[in-house]
Amino acid sequence: MSLSSSLEYAPRPVGFVPAAVSPEPVRQPDRDTGLVADRPLFGLEQLEVSWMEETGTLWTFMRPRGRPSYNPDLLRDFEAWQAGIRAMFAGRPRDLRYLVLGSRAPGVFNLGGDLHLFARKIRERDHDTLVEYGKRCVRILHNNMNGLGLPVITVGLAQGDALGGGFESLLSFNVIVAERGAKFGLPENLFGLFPGMGAYSLLARRIGAARAEEMILTGRTYSAEEMKELGIVHILAEPGTGIEETRKYIERQKRRHAGHRAVYQAGREVNPVSLDELDRIVELWADACMELREQELRVMERLVSAQDRLGGAAQPVRPMVAAE
User: Fold this and answer.
1) Which residue among 4, 14, 269, 297 has its CA within the 20 to 30 Å range from the CA of 228?
2) Where are the annotated coiled coils located (predicted)?
3) How many other CB atoms are found less than 10 A from the CB of residue 45?
């Protein structure tokens, strides 16, 4: 089964690189954040991307369509985003110093995998599509863990809940900024599954295998404060101040960028996570999916309904920089 047919989206051509929306710098502050970006980039449907040359920061915000989850079209945007970043900084890699990812969904960073797709493909006994979905996710995650091969520090900005795959993806960043009130956790155990796209690999390396297994098997939800105590969240921000605290972090660290970046690179040398390891765990996850009973699928679908309600409130908002 082809990836395009199984995940039901029209693939972009091989080698696609999104173009900048505006060829001339547009410098006007965002009314909500006060940020001044040079221009919006890439023109992606569910990702809002802005470049701030002065600090060497590429700000990106997810603008989910419907449920704030990793639907196949959002994965496609992330693939194009990563290709676009590599192309944009080819020949000038040191211009990009910080890569920030947040979300415009009110109260939500991301709720993880596309549970509607999962339930449907499990009922259809379509193991291959589940594996393909998982492998796309871990390739995006693995690229981010390695800074896209660029000398960059990555920052995950959680202004709301990061659950399931949303939490997994957040773990792939060098620095995590979280607002108080945000919740974190891996609820897959509620419907008989486990998080199969990076959680065990990344958590075990950060907090040890025993603590990682406890977090995965209990399905507990943790506060931002608890995540800070565990060493997973690095910067706590008051509600509504996550963007400002991220900006302050970048300003404080600008003279120490090279040293901090080298520390994160050293960490990857000491505790490497291979793509082969992530792929093998995706296969285990897809095998476990095939063992779910109708009862577990109904629990999964109740969570989908809850995500739908959140998605109704999570409509895209005005971009950081208006292209007027």
Assistant:
1) 269
2) none
3) 13
The CA distance from 170 to 233, in Å, is 10
Q: Which domains does the chain have, with CATH numbers?
A: 3-313 (3.90.226.10)
CB of 273 closer than 8 Å to CB of 201: yes
> In the block, which residue shows the tokens 């594996």?
131
| Among 145, 114, 154, 157, residue whose Cα is nearest residue 132 | 114
Per the prediction, the chain carries an average pLDDT of 87
Least confident window among 6-10, 49-53, 196-200, 245-249: 6-10
Distance CA 243, CA 290 (A): 41
Residue 312 pLDDT: 54
Q: Nearest 5°: phi and psi at 104?
A: -95, 0
Helix (H) or strand (E) holding 318: none
pLDDT of 174 over the 80 cut:
yes
Residue with tokens 């209990």: 218
DSSP codes joined into one string, 146-210: TGGGSS-EEEEEESSEEETHHHHHHTTSSEEEEETT-EEE-GGGGGT---TTTHHHHHHHHH-HH
